[in-house]
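@channel sequence for tomorrow's demo:
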Amino acid sequence: FQMEPQVLYRVCYGTCTPTSLQKSLLTIRPAILHNHCRHKVLGRDYPAITPSLHDSVRGTYVQGLTDAEIFRLDIFEGVEYERRKVKIRILDAEGDEGGKGNVEGEEVEVETYVWVAGEAELEEGEWDFGQFQREKMQRWIGGREAYDEVDEAVKARGEDPTGGRGTNGSISEELKSRREAEILGSAV
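structure tokens (generated this afternoon):
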């Protein structure tokens, strides 16, 4: 629900800088998901969304995804998440991070990825999207020098803070090989 557009493009199109045609195929709008909370996941860069009364998560509403792109997103999200139907509100105007100044519009039923890997894997406190953008996003969208940090973390601790989702991670490599197979299949 709160996926940085550049990460979305990388998952769907194999690049964080899609062509203008590819960008035009998707409509991305701000939205809010009530009665859910966004948690930190232990030792990972990414969040977990879980049901939670009286909490809300600001995110994005994406229209125009194809079945193939949703399939790629399912692979990317992995077994830690389950795609579920939820109701969101489109934000006609965005307020501050606390939601003050949000102007909610139309309610829409959508599918989002909800954490199912258990609460033991979650940290206290809300995941900070701004911090992710400032400090960790490069791991997810590319840039060799940014990924060196991930490689070093994997070597030192045997852990990948992207959970295989970074530019050179196991999930990303699987997506790349599937994309290549699709291209070869369509060329025949």
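heads up for whoever presents: The two ends are 36 Å apart (CA to CA).
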